[in-house]
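User: I'm putting together a teaching handout on how multi-component assemblies are represented. Below are the sequence lines for each component of a complex, exactly as they appear in our records. Could you produce the 3D structure of the whole assembly as structure tokens, so the students can see both representations side by side? Please keep the chain order the same as the input.
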Amino acid sequence: DTGVSQNPRHKITKRGQNVTFRCDPISEHNRLYWYRQTLGQGPEFLTYFQNEAQLEKSRLLSDRFSAERPKGSFSTLEIQRTEQGDSAMYLCASSLFVEQYFGPGTRLTVT
Amino acid sequence: DQQVKQNSPSLSVQEGRISILNCDYTNSMFDYFLWYKKYPAEGPTFLISISSIKDKNEDGRFTVFLNKSAKHLSLHIVPSQPGDSAVYFCAASVSSGGGADGLTFGKGTHLIIQP
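Assistant: Of course. Below is the structure of the complete assembly, with chains in the same order as your input.
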């Protein structure tokens, strides 16, 4: 299967800990996006990359959130000093044109 | 302020009939619209899209209609099947450089297909 993959699928962490999620896009896609989805809402755009360049990061929720895509392939999303309000599904998507294809998501629970 | 609105949280349709899901947007800069289907505990699955230069796009049982003057789009599913039961999200984007910026999503409509 050559779809978007995300790891881990589930993460439980204690408040104040740092967490990092990984996304592997579809191999020929040059754009990679991160979203957050909470219960009853649609996905909320956070940031995106074209190759290794981060083209939009003003929508990251706070300075505790950061993302990298060092070699233009996989990407990581890090949340520092997690808070209970960070509990959500974190989704990654990739695209070659306008249509974005999503991975299965990482479910974060902050206790 | 919600730029993409799906005003029906849920919709129940009989198997074999037509399902019509609606979506409204407010941002005139949006020039590409997409529909996604989502099952619980999975990521959204791309269904169909439409550029603002068109008013209709069809793919099998799925047809999307766009009314730019009304800032309204709809997804028609004919005939509806039990496997279509899911949450459907409308999304909009501003295209750039052959791709698009981040998508703006509505809150979704839960479609239930009754046997």
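A couple of points students might notice: Chain B has no helices and 13 strands. Chain B has a mean pLDDT of 95.
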